[in-house]
Every structure is written in structure tokens, then in C-alpha cells.
Amino acid sequence: MSNVLVLVDHAGGKVRKTTAELLTIARRLGEPVAVYIGDGVQDALPALGQYGATKVIALTNPDLTQFLVAPKAEALQQVAAKLEPTAILISSNAEGKEIAARLAVKLDSGLITDAVDVQAGDGAGGSPVTTQSVFAGNYTVQAKITHGTPIITVKPNAASPEAAETTPEVEEFDVSVSDAAKTARITDSKPREATGRPELTEAAIIVSGGRGTGGDFGPVEAFADSLGAAVGASRAAVDSGWYPHAYQVGQTGKTVSPQLYVAAGISGAIQHRAGMQTSKTIVAINKDEEAPIFELVDFGVVGDLHKVLPAATEEVTKRKS
Ligand code: FAD
């Protein structure tokens, strides 16, 4: 069976959910081979095996983690030359997209970014067919790469991770890094301040606040915490300086697809919808019954979020105790 490379997205050996999604997609296309960069591969093995990696290529050359992305692209080029994969899947985040672009140039291959679905193409080894959502979700585009090794970056929540339970073999792989790739050294890196809440793109429940909060995210955070949810924000809230940009949901923010998305004081502009419309269940709280968000929702509450959210928080807390 043909190899499909999946670049593992991890934090010190803790595999991110997006990698479980990529492995699930890779199984549709061929034999999933995980490429792990950095220390901690042993910590990652159970998660990689759980989602079907049959092999893990471990790259531990310290140059790969001491510099910005250029060495990683060189390393993947060398792995691809050896394994001759039929596709390479990478998470659609800022780093993943830069690696993918550099790799596409090196391999003289086509690149598709921000896929929201990837399916097997026609015939054995046929180029995968990707789906992209473009123009703020107004159009869906199906495409496939016709030149070189298909390189595809995939957005979070493009697939539900499906367990496969394999025991992957680990292969240490030596890569060389050119001096040209070692020009931007990482001098310091700090994890984002821990909030104790789930990561926005991985959360099963998200409670988001918009301009209707008037800048007070207290009720949004309290309701999120009662549900064990992540907090999101509309661009209006972020642009007003009420919440950090890292939490913005939408076209120019994060794309999310939780089981439950609660939009509080958010009108439902097309650019916000682009980031959350694939959520399984959508609930909106808005004091304007004509707000466009109500066209999208499964449940709507017409009311003042400063009253509705505390009442809902109280009810959830009461039911939990
Ligand atoms: P508003 O549209 O002002 O809506 C506020 C809502 O709160 C209203 O519906 C109002 O009825 C309600 N409300 C007010 N007070 C209360 C209350 N007390 N209780 C309950 N409800 C109340 N937006 C994004 O969100 N994400 C993006 O990534 C994004 N990218 C963009 C990219 C581009 C190129 C452009 C042009 C725009 C982008 N936008 C994005 C902005 C988008 O067009 C909207 O301006 C924005 O989403 C509006 O945010 P909002 O719904 O919080 O504010």
C-alpha cells in the first residue's frame, strides 16, 4: 500500500487532536506514516498508534527545533525522497502552512491549503480530492493536485478522529540541514498563559462573546467554565480590545467545529459564520430577534445576555451538583 505522510503536530510529545484527524484521513488514502520532529517520540507513540500510524519516522536532529521552519521543510523533503509518499498531510496552522509551501517548492509539487475534507482519488494512488470552503464559506471548491506529490494542509475538525489501534514501529531517520536553512534561530518561546480551558480549535463546547457583551466577558467565561468549554470571540470584540485575537472565531480567526457552539451578543456576520457554521449544534443569545445569527441556529434565545448567561450558568451548576 502507498505511504501517506502525516506531519505530527505536538507539544513536547503531547499529540494534538488535529494529528488524530490527519491520521484518520490518511487511512482513507493509504498507509499512514507519522513524521515526528523533536524530542518525546516515545510519549507520542500511544496516541499515534491509537489513530492508525503504522510507522513513525522520528527526526531528532536538534537543528530542526532550534530554528524556524526552513529546516523542517528540508527534513520532510529528505523523508519524502526515501519513502516516495503518494500524499503529504500537514495541519493548517501558521507553521504547517509555511512548511507546506516551502516543501512544495522543494518537491516541485502542487499544494492545496485549508482543506476541510480530503477523500481518496480515483484508482490506486490517484491524487486525493480535497474540499475547500472559500469566499467566507459562500463556495465549496473540489480540487486535486495534478503535478508531483500532493501536499495538503487540512483545517482542524475536517474529520472525526477514528481509532484504529496499531503498534507503530519507530524508525530514527538522520536528516541534514543546510546552512541556508539555519538563518532564523528561535531565541525564546513561552507557552500562552494557561487558562485551564480547552484549546479553542479542539474544544467540544465553545461559548463565544461579541459586541453585545459591551466588553464584559465575565458572564461568557462563567458559562463556559460551568460547561468545561472554551471561550471564543467575534472580531468586533477582539478589535475593541476586549478579548485576545488568539480567540477570534471566523474568516480571519480560527475555524471551529465543536459539538455545541453558543454565540452570545454576536450578530452572525458572514465572516463570523465562516469560522463556526459547521458546529454540530448552534445556540444564539441575542436581544434582537431579527439578528441574522438566528437563521443559522438550532436553538435561539431572544434576550439580554447579561441576564440569560448568568441564569444558564446557575442552572448548569445546580444540575451538576
Ligand atoms: P455586531 O455585528 O455589532 O453584533 C452585536 C450583536 O449583539 C447584535 O446582534 C446585537 O443585537 C447583540 N446585542 C447587543 N447587546 C446585547 C445584549 N445585551 N444581549 C444580547 N445581545 C446583544 N468577524 C468575526 O467575528 N470573525 C472574523 O474572523 C471576521 N473576519 C472578517 C474579515 C473581513 C475581511 C471583514 C471585512 C470582516 C470580518 N469580520 C469578522 C467582521 C464581521 O463582518 C462583523 O463585523 C463582526 O463579526 C461583528 O461582530 P459582532 O457580531 O460581535 O458585532
UniProtKB/TrEMBL annotation:
| Keywords linked to the UniProt accession | Electron transport, FAD, Flavoprotein, Transport
Cofactor(s) annotated in UniProt:
FAD
- InterPro entries recorded: DHS-like_NAD/FAD-binding_dom, ETF_a/b_N, ETF_a/FixB, ETF_alpha_N, ETF_asu_C, ETF_asu_C_CS, Rossmann-like_a/b/a_fold
The segment(s) forming the Electron transfer flavoprotein alpha/beta-subunit N-terminal domain are 4-191
Subunit structure, interactors included:
Heterodimer of an alpha and a beta subunit.
Family, per the entry?
Answer: Belongs to the ETF alpha-subunit/FixB family.
Query: Per its record, how is this protein called by name?
Result: Electron transfer flavoprotein subunit alpha/FixB family protein
